[in-house]
Specification:
78 residues; mainly alpha
Length: 78
């Protein structure tokens, strides 16, 4: 499956804005939803962006150090 660059260019700024709003809210559930929404979009367009670690760090920041996990684990848990 080829990468849909047009879709990624269109959706990526929206996903980053959603993550920023979720992070600023301080609500871990909103951050998780932003991460899940981003991973769903990345699957649709066929690749993870170069800055995927922003979502990982935001997710890690909502959890105690001993409960941090991989973004893909979040996807499997939901």
């Amino acid at each position: 499956m080829p990468i849909d660059y047009a879709m990624s260019k269109r959706e990526h700024p929206k996903l980053k804005a959603q993550l920023t709003r979720a992070t600023k809210s301080g609500d871990p559930k909103k951050v998780e939803k932003a991460c899940l929404d981003a991973m769903e979009a990345w699957s649709r367009w066929g690749a993870w962006p170069d800055d995927w670690s922003k979502w990982q760090r935001a997710l890690d920041d909502t959890r105690p150090w001993h409960q941090q996990g991989d973004l893909r684990e979040l996807r499997l848990a939901s």
